[in-house]
Amino acid sequence: MNFLRNTFAVLVGLGITGLIITLGIRAFPQWVTFDAFAPFEHWQRFLESMKNDEAFFGFLLFISGLGTTVGGIATAIIVKYAKVAYAILIGFIMLFIAMLDVIIFPYHPTFYKISIFLTFFPFSWIGGKIVEVIYERNKNKKIRDKVNKEK
């Protein structure tokens, strides 16, 4: 049962991350060069049209970090144990996808190629740590309330 729960958590985290990145790209109308909702359907043409726009790639890093954090939070909330580890798994999977993107499509600037390594793991780790800290505080509060109640 834990395997299904953990698999579901990872899929939800990846889905939320993808949705946030998609919504982030669509946030600026001047970047929308496609008709479909998801920019990933026309990713090669889209990247080719953005290859000289460093602001776009900077924003893509930011929105990827934000999406990975929120996806890590969602994953960590759903899994029962090893919350931070599963949140980091979201970062690893997103880093793998970003590396494939950089390898397959040659339109990314150098700073983006380097920065993806500094974005996905730390932000997914932060998402897992946020949930872990909240759960620990709630657990400590319950213990403290129980001890105070007994006095």
UniProtKB/TrEMBL annotation:
- Source superkingdom: Bacteria
Key words of the record: Membrane, Transmembrane, Transmembrane helix
Q: Where are the transmembrane segments?
A: 7-28, 55-79, 86-108, 114-135
Name it. Uncharacterized protein
What is the source species? Answer: Chryseobacterium potabilaquae
Q: What is the lineage of its organism?
A: Bacteria, Pseudomonadati, Bacteroidota, Flavobacteriia, Flavobacteriales
